[in-house]
Amino acid sequence: xxxxxxxxxxxxxxxxxxxxxxxxxxxxxxxxxxxxxxxxxxxxxxxxxxxxxxxxxxxxxxxxxxxxxxx
Length: 71
Hints:
This protein is mainly alpha-helical. 76% of the residues lie in helices and 0% in strands.
């Protein structure tokens, strides 16, 4: 089950644009601040927050279609 969940998460991440994927990886997985991730991506902190939010929402939709429930 854990392997399948990891695979589903990887597929959901791959469905995102590269910059959004990088932001989510840096902030949610690596633990960087939004400001650090935004700076690395060459965008404002506000734009990074929006991209992360939209990316997570897209991932949630992708995972719910696959029957995966968060938490």
